[in-house]
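Two entries, shown back to back:
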Amino acid sequence: MAKVKTGSTYSNPLSTRPPLTPEAKEQQMIALAYDLVEQRLRDGTASSQETTHFLKMGTERARLEQRRLEAETEMIIAKKESLQSQQRSEEMFQQAINAFRRYSGQSGQDDCDDY
């Protein structure tokens, strides 16, 4: 007689709410794929590619690579914020120059837009 699994930790994918966005659908599919590979690893039926993927994920090199990617992302975000701040400063500087011109009687002239 075949054994029937009861009380499985894996939910029925048909009983879950359908995703509302393509990103949510992608995340759902990724979660299902991970669940399937996890079950295959537990059953001993995982392919060599599946096993190798998770072995590589557990290495120090993979952790260092992940940290490097996170640091690069933070640096890119900081550069973007710096450029935006610089642009705001330049706009404020230009507004100040224009205000000084108006105060000095040179209203309507924008000869220093290149600053």
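entry 2 starts here
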Amino acid sequence: MKTYILKRILMLIPVMFTISILVFFLIRILPGDVISDILGIEQTPENRAILERQFNFDRPVPQQYLMWITDILRGDFGVSLRTGRPILPDFVQRFKVTIELALIASIIAWIISIPLGILSALKRNSISDFFIRIFGLLGVSVPNFAFATLLILVLALGFNYYPPIAWVDFTVDPLRNLQTIIWPALVLGSIMAGSVMRMTRSAMLDNLRQDFIKTIRAKGAGPRLVIFKHALKNSLIPIITIIGMQMGALLGGTVVIEQIFSLPGVGQMTLDAIFKRDYPIVQANILMLAGIYVLINLFVDLMYAVIDPRVTLK
């Protein structure tokens, strides 16, 4: 196990290195001139030269990359071109909002999808199975921004309720915090539940057809023992896989939802930086989110051996 973990961690190095190159150089080919945007009507050759030296834009692009990646290895993710503030503290503060949103959305998705997936597999081709499959299809088909807009309209027009938009930290006012985050989490959780439910149903159906399930039933085991201890347990690997993929996608895919519900998360921070051409923030945020995503994948791989003793990690 230790050898496998060490190998996987070493494999992350070239992955992150490749991501850093792609992010840095793709940002550089985007249209627009951030120096001109910052200077505005005060743009002169002298002022422009000062800012280019300050931000190292007067150096060759490969040299800029080497300086940037060297600073990152020392824990310095740079400063904002607009505010001059260090990026890392702002990212950590915004990431607290995004990770809270992603965790609550994931919990909602698990609560909805796994029981529905099991029920759909047990009631295959029944009326309940039909409606559950429709729900799963909607979950993977409806864009999250469309569902969010529809939810806000229903709450406003049907119940005269408007989701609060003033963010309050959980440590300050837990109730107000949950009132703010529960609606965007419900949107993301419902969308995520569609994929997880479909995978749960498929895995359960596959295992319920296996010979070992027939043998266990022939020995007189009760339905609960057969379903939860044997069928569900042997279905967990694909379920865990899709959950890990969805959680990683949630961390980087909350941009639109954070914008709709005015949540001060990483998604909104990155979107604002793109609009303002604040490239250091965009680069740092994408790189850190990519690092978190690959760590989630590593954790999922390690969970395989915990869930299924037949899986050996070498």
